[in-house]
Target: Leucine-binding protein domain-containing protein
Amino acid sequence: IFDSSCTGKACFGFFSVGSSYTHTGLAALNEKMTEDAQVAVITNSNGFSQSVFEGAKNYIEDNAGLNKQSETTISVEKADLTDGDKTKIKVAMDQRPDIVVIAGHNKDVEPAIVEIGKGTIHPKAILATNGLTALENYGEDSKYANCVMMPTQWAEGSTTDPVVGWTSADFKTAMNGSATYQQAAAGAVCVALANAMEAGSNDKAKLVEKLKTMDVDSFYGKLKWDSAGRISKPMYTQQKQGDNMAIVAPTGSVSFPITGDSCWGTGTKLKIGGPIQDSYVSAFMVWVDGHNAKSDKQYTVETHFKTYADASFEADVTAMTTPGDEQYVDALLCPYTSGAVIKCVGAVHSDYPGPIMVWGGASDTIFDSSCT
Model:
């Protein structure tokens, strides 16, 4: 529209262009990462999706901390995935991307997200066009909509312009209680015209002149245009957080990672424990609590400590190291003193595949004999 169709004409757009759709979302996710993020980009072949796709790739290439890992084009548009498409997505996910960007439409975006969710390798975040506009398309797999991020044109803020004076709430009330971003864009056209007329002393011949120099905040966002007619407001990013659709970029708080308990609840859980004397448990919990408090953690630590009792702790060790037992731990922590460690190691189930952490014993016998 603005690169070609509007050349030589006084166009004023009200949608942020497709090439910018993913920018604020990617910026917010980049801030969440503690190391460079590997990004998989998936698109359908629709022209608009391709503009989003190219814009995402360009943004990734231009910003430190983001690396394009793979790009995938699916064969369908507004339809369920083919087996071939599912295979392509699996190939992309097998590379373990941190972020997946999806440019597509309802009925192909949701199946792509579900396909990722049902796979064995999960990213830290998904940013998808149309990922939250038709939640019914997730069907019985609705949990995979949780914490998906989606570009949106309208932040539904409380800012007002100086002439019409609408807030987002005012506009929605006038629209009988709710409004789409498309309707908000139409309303913003009227706000822009009203402000241009005011600035031009109600001389309609000055509309173009005043629109070209306009710089007005409004319920819809910044009303300002570049020389080609592209609106200068940012693309916003929203995220499904429980029952809320929260704006998380360019400002806001992203729920991260998508595998977390408040999102998909599919994150890795590391269960550690053992029969530890009470006075030493707090030393382990310093790390456990600190790690679990991190917003960008890739796994959660669960603890299963049993109070050390010399007469019975060996039975606890056997239970904790028996695969399938409800007390099973991924890493066994033996108690303090070399004598207790020797008993602990001796009680470990023969099929236990996990590590035995010997932190409280220094006897050579432990390593020369017990751990053999």
Summary: The chain has eleven helices and 13 strands. The chain has three domains: 18-153+235-249, 168-224, 269-370.
